[in-house]
Amino acid sequence: MNAWRWDGDDLLLTLHVQPGAVRSELAGLHGTALKVRVAAPPAAGRANRELLAFVARLFAVARNRVRLEQGASGRSKRVRVVAPGGLPAELAAALGASVATALGAD
User: Fold this and answer.
1) 11 contacts 2 by C-beta, under 8 angstroms
2) Strand pairing class (66-70; 25-30)
3) Three-state helix/strand/coil letters over 41-77
């Protein structure tokens, strides 16, 4: 699976997550996954909660429209963004121009 794919109106993201970072941010690609640094430790689900909140902020959607579908206890995760309004410029930059064109980003 690539770093992203559409599933109907939803966007599925394949992520490689690095917990315990100074701040939550996109960090480019890690193999076929989008690398995300999160500013939370991997204890008691805190990194997963911060990851989902970060993705919600990134897409400007409500937190309940971002779901962790796979990888609750590992660094490799699949996240679903339910009906995002568009592709954030920050994500388009992290994925590269060819991917941004395929997604229809401005």
Assistant:
1) no
2) unpaired
3) CCCCCHHHHHHHHHHHHHHCCCHHHEEEEECCCCCEE
65-98 core/surface letters (b: 16 or more CB in 10 A; e: else): bbebeebeeebebbbbbbebeebbeebbebbeee
DSSP code at position 15: E
One digit per residue, pLDDT tens: the chain, 106 residues? 588 888 999 999 999 999 999 999 999 889 899 999 999 998 889 999 999 999 999 999 999 999 999 999 999 999 999 999 777 887 777 766 445 444 444 4
Q: Is 10 exposed, middle or buried (0-12, 13-18, 19+ CB in 10 A)?
A: middle
At 75, list the tokens: 């660094």
CA dihedral 33, 69, 58, 45 (to 10 degrees): -100
